[in-house]
Design brief:
Blueprint: H1 3-25, E1 34-38, H2 44-53, E2 57-60, H3 63-72, E3 79-82, H4 91-94, E4 100-104, H5 107-119, E5 124-129, H6 146-153, E6 159-166, H7 174-191, E7 203-206, H8 212-217, E8 222-225
Parallel strand pairs: 1-2, 1-8, 2-3, 3-4, 4-5, 5-6, 6-7
Helix pairs in contact: 1-2
Length: about 230
Amino acid sequence: MTETARKIADNFHRVMERVEKSANDAGRDPRCVKVIGVTKYVEPALAEMLFHAGCHRLGESRPQILLEKVSALEDLNAEWHFIGHLQRNKVKKVLPHVSLIHSLDSLRLAESVNRLAIEQEMPSDVLLEVNISGDDAKHGFLPQEIQADLNAIEKLSHVRVTGLMGMAGLKSDAKEIRRQFSQLRELRDSLQPTDWQKAPLTELSMGMSGDFEMAIAEGATMVRIGSVLFDGVL
């Protein structure tokens, strides 16, 4: 093992220890929290080292880079997640390569995903991105409007809504971040009782390198972690 690979492995194991502690402190089972290793700033070789360290779920935010990494690392059998803003004209390229889209942010995008999923005979799992911070620069459904759009999305034959995704505001302090994550969990919980066959809403993707412990405390089932996994490497 090279020094770089050893450093990445150490970083990943430390992150997993923090995930375990955060979950235990919240009275949750650590096995219910999935780490998505965000590789958008690193070359395929470093992403491969992260995979071999034990992080088998990898996240990319740009379609072209996703395709390049999937091709370069095709022998790994990694589980790829798309976590960035997805334009409708990029859906066709992305869809065959990802297990989950974290950032479905409009009914029109859902309809595009559904149409192409039908063409490819490949039902698609998605998370609905919710603008929990209210930041104008962020994408996503507004919390007060998501119910009506979810009613329409649930009727799409090849789209399955497995949960919600949200990002804390860039200028939010710790108290506000916790409030925003709590709001997303409460929104998910309020939607769950509805008897939707294609919207189980079991997942909550929230929390990144700087705030994933707070997200786990508030119920995150997926945390998207990038920079701390490559600390001392980049």
